[in-house]
Structures are given as C-alpha cells and as structure tokens.
Amino acid sequence: MIRKWLVAAALVTGLSGPAFAETVNILMEGVPDTEYVKTLLPEFKQATGIDVNLEVVNYAEMHTKLVPQLVAPSGSYSAIVVDFYWVGEFTKAGWLQPLDERIKADNVDTSVYVPKLMDLVGKVDGTTYMLPFYNYAMGLLYRKDLLADEKNKTDFKAKYGFDLDVPKTWDEYLKQVEFFTKDGINGVVNQGLRPDPIAMEWSNYLFANGGEYHDDNWKPTLNTEAGVKALDQYATNVNKFGPVGSASFSFDEAFNVMAQGKAYSYITYNFFRAGIDDASKSAVVGKVEIMPVPGTEAAKGGSLNGAWGWAIPKSSPNPDAAWKFLKWVESPEIAKKRALQGGSPTRTDVFDDPDVNAKYPYAKALKEMLLTSHNFPVFTYTPQLVEVLGRELSLAVAGEKKAPDALAAVEAEMSELAKKDGKLK
C-alpha cells in the first residue's frame, strides 16, 4: 500500500528519476501539522532521494531566526513556512521567490486552494509567492447537548420567543450566550490576552456585525456602528457572561474551560475541534460541534481566516530541490494523508474527499467556514497593527476607555502605518 502511494505521488509531482544526495532544510513551528508532515518524510526520501531536515522551534523564535537567513545572499533554509502576519513584510522586502513560472512549467493546479487562503498566503499583487500549507481559521465551538435539552428548549422559547437551535445569526448567538450563563456554566469563554489572542478573537465580532478593517483604499473603518457594537458586545461577553480572568486568557486557558464543560461556547481556531473529542483532554467528548461564526442578516459569516504558506526564499541554497518538496507535500495524496492524521487542509478537494469526511464529519463545516471567512489586513506592518489593536481592545474591556475612543486610537495608528507602507494615500 505504501509503495502504491509513493508511485502515485511521484507521478503527480514529477519526482521520478534517479535518487541523489541532497538535503532540504526547513524552519517550522512546533504545531500538529508540522508533526504530520514529519511522519511522511520517509516517502519523499524514497521517491526522490532527497533528505528533508525540519528545524522545529516555537513561534516566538521563528521570525528572529528567519530574518538573518532571508537577508543573506545564501541562507541556511531551502524552504520556509510563512505566517500571514509576515506576508507583507517578506514580499515587500523581496525575500521570497515568485513561484508562477514553476507552477506553470509543472502544471500545478492552484485552483484547488480555498480562494481566501490564496489571498492570504498565496498571491500578493497578482504574483504567487506561496502555496497554502495549513489553515487556522476561527470558528464557533458550541455545546450541542445543551441545545438539544428539552428543558432548555422550553425555557429559551419562553424567554426569547423563538426556538433554541444552532444559531443562524449573530444576534441569536448572543442571546444564547446570555441564556446559558447559569447553573455554573458560562455562556462563553473568551481569549482576552493582549495583543494577539484578543485581536484575533475580536475580529470575529467585527466581521459578524458586518464590519471591516478598512475600505478598498485602506482607509480604516473600525470606529463605525459595527465596530463599536462589536467591541461593546465583546466586553459584555468577557465581563458578564464569561469566567473570571478571561480578559487575560490565551487560547490554552480558554480551551480548558470549554473542555471541562464550564462554557456553552468558544470562538477559537478550528484545529481545537479535534482536541475537544480527545478524552485525555476533554470532559465533553461527543457534546461539542463547530460551525462558522454566524453573522448578521447582511453579513453571512463572521469567521476570521488564518493560515501559513510554503515559500522558497531568495536566499535558498537549493531552490529546485525545495520546489520538488513543495510539489510533493502539497500534492493531493500527501495533503489527504496529512488531513487524515488531523491536519488543517487548505485544498477544497481534500475537504470534499469521502475518506476525510468519513473520519471527520465536521469537514463540511470547516470548508464552509473557510469559504465565508474574512482576512485580517495583510501589509508590511501587520504585527504592529496587532500590537495597537490588542492594547486598545484590552483598555476597552477593562473599562478604561469607551469603545469609540479605543477604536479611534486604533484608526489613527493604523492610518499612519498604512501611509508608511504606501497603502493609504
């Protein structure tokens, strides 16, 4: 069976031919998807004769280790993985090799990728610099057992005048958060730690209310009715309907509250869906499901997108071997194998695969989440915007600033960053 897969992968990716001694070095973050890639590397070695050395570090170390190698005439890394935070910086600096000629020469079908992911970690200004590696779009985890409880159904309808069911709109969801804050359970648990956790989570509230970060000309559009409502709702959920301390929770602490059965809902990264059914980590196995973050009647979905992409740096010592690896790791067969291990796909054909759907029935919901998701602003100063946003959101949640004042401060600093980057005239 393994031999059959190897032959198929070699045919699809054009990797047939004599083996030769060469090593592809890649710096990667220590996350589950990296481990799934690692388990499959012997297949690449057998198919190509090329060794792959993965240097795995935590996220905080990656940017610091990457930049000196990217600015060097010849670096240590043959290929790299790029968080969407860094896409604007890396492409504007000219650190990544365009991939379009290689894609065309080898007939690599990039149309299979979720369009929003190609926009986020694929193409920049019409040029392809990356192949989307894995997604970390955010979705709504909710307790389906609490929705199915007959007493809850009766009480909810008596209070709100409509049926208790999987929320179809953002307003319906907020009423459920209020309703389920009782009997030792919180209606929601939030990840309010600044700057990244709160900035990413609050983005879902903004999109769910029909808001956006900026218009087509990069003029900030946060201090609007949608933005103010989103921030007021977030502060209410943290302070009134969430557990004590959630204003300083990162995603691990928030997940633990959800996994212990102490919250009805949690907006978080979709890869936590698998963890919630791990009996060694969760007391609510089989009781939780995931869905796209619902929006208003006008906003069809509120989920924030997130992803990493494979890239070949300009400083790559062996770009041809790196491209062979990228073609292989993103081939349909290998992408499917990664997904079956629990990975977070970026290709629509993997989400549609019957074997993937049989093992993970929520794959359809994940695909819908990605198709309706929203991208965070990608430009040279994305990390700096996250710092500003996290600071101001936290001040509003703590009651130290009114929502309009906090969002006005974000807009002012975002405008300066966008002007500095040449985005805003």
| Global structural class | alpha+beta
What integer is the average pLDDT?
93
Main sheet: which strands, in order across? 2-1-3-10-6
Query: Which band does the percent of strand residues land in?
Result: 5-15%
Helix share bin? 40-55%
Task: Please count the beta strands (DSSP E, at least 2 residues each).
Answer: 10
Shape: globular
Q: SSE order, as H and E?
A: HEHEHEHHHEEEEHHHHHHEHEEHHHHHHH
- Cα-based radius of gyration, to the nearest Å: 22 Å
Low-confidence stretches: 1-20
- Total helical elements: 20
Largest beta-sheet characterization? 5 strands, mixed
Distance between the termini: 58 Å
Structure in words:
The chain is of the alpha+beta class and 425 residues long. The protein has helices spanning 2-13, 32-48, 59-71, 84-92, 100-105, 115-121, 144-148, 150-160, 170-179, 196-208, 225-240, 251-259, 272-275, 319-329, 332-341, 348-351, 354-359, 363-371, 382-397, 403-420; strands at residues 22-29, 50-57, 79-83, 123-124, 127-128, 131-135, 138-143, 265-269, 288-291, 307-311. The strands form three sheets. Strands 2-1-3-10-6 form a five-stranded mixed β-sheet, with helices on both faces. Helix 1 packs across helix 2, helix 10 crosses helix 11 and helix 10 (196-208) packs across helix 19 (382-397). The longest helix is centred in the last third of the chain and has 18 residues, at 403-420. The N and C termini lie far apart (58 Å).
